[in-house]
Amino acid sequence: MPHPYTLIEPVVAALPLVVDSPHSGLHHDEILPMSATPDQLLTGWDAYVEELFGHVPQVGGTLLHAGFPRWLVDANRARDDLDPDLLEGQMPYPLRPSDKARRGMGVLRRLALPGVPVYACRLPAAFAEQLLKRYYDPYHAAIAGLICTQHAQFGAVWHIDCHSMKSRGNAMNIDNGAARPDFVVSNQDGKTSSAEFIEVVAGCLRELGYNVSVNWPYKGAELIGAYSDPARGRHSLQIEVNRALYLDEARFVRSEGFARLRAHLDLLLEVVAAYVRSQVPAFR
Known about the structure:
Aminopeptidase, globular, N-FG_amidohydro, two-stranded parallel sheet, 7-stranded mixed beta sheet, alpha/beta
């Protein structure tokens, strides 16, 4: 069975900094009744995001990225955020489908693209629960363990959840048809991080020449909401990177912009690491 995630430890003195990419994976070993084509499924892949943020261990942070595909299990949704229309039978707990699940983008995806079902039939509820136990639970256990351990050691922790976004919204998104900024940085309208931390990140990206939106069209989802508590020193934010900056979106291959963007994200991570050191007494 493919491992549900890869964990890369710091190669210099460790900081209370956790960076994760939950949609980087492509591997699974289930035989499934597919309807969507491989290319249609790839549209949900955060292609090469773990590479874009690969400098994390060099600044003292810990990098976690998923091995499984987003269309199979989306770790950035609540575990009970399931569309009942996807299932045959009852789950062993009540479901709480969000608006995203109703639009086909729950923890187990019903749609790959507007009008394009992932599966050719409903999934048995017992199989759905098996998928969550195999992929979702280990990933969340890993991210929760890292955040809790580092918070206990340093008294505070900073977490960045990393994603890519299509350059233009589609009918499954709230910004259907709209061209997107270079970056969207989110903290659920101030609920998951301090205002200072999100400004450090957004401000650095703007200084590098990028168009940055804060909390629109993405506000951040489960991975920053579940484990953050800014009042107790647990700060989480989400970054969405516009794929047009680094990717041929039609062919899912790196474009000429990849190296430039990677170099800029290396600089961003250096700035974030310096900020973290400035906030923790042990590093002053």
